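INFO  loader      accepted 1 record
INFO  loader      residues=161
INFO  predictor   begin
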Amino acid sequence: MDNSTVFQKTAKGNQEIKKHSIKLEYKVRSLLILIDGRKTYGQINETIRHLGLGPDAFQELEQLELIEAISAQPSANAAAPAEQQPKTGIENFIDAQRFMSEIANDALGFKGLFFKLKIERCGNVDELKGLLDEFETMLGKKQTAEQASMARKTAENILNS
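INFO  predictor   done
INFO  writer      dumping tokens
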């Protein structure tokens, strides 16, 4: 798979985020949440490298028609402008906030409502980083310690990328 390929969620993928109709493995669901139509395959892979997912997870989401490739930069010259413009801190903040909110909602349901509100009230990266311990602890009550730790590492990777 080309590192410059950009994926987006399909209507079915957006519906899956809301309804949980397909029982995706936790790691694959985390990947689906991260796909936003802006980040490349290479960027997403870097963010989730600790999950141990590879091209097969993207292919699974494609086969389930939850994501689709929307572009690929065919030449090094076409990719250069994007590489010269690193993501801003605010983009990382928004991505991490969205990821944490979705994971908290998935794992905790209604019980996670107040924590989700805490996430949404964060106004900067430092405030969001300040919730990472609580994020992992709360997830650990409903999921395995490994899943909670992976979610925290993913959020940290997003914030630090």
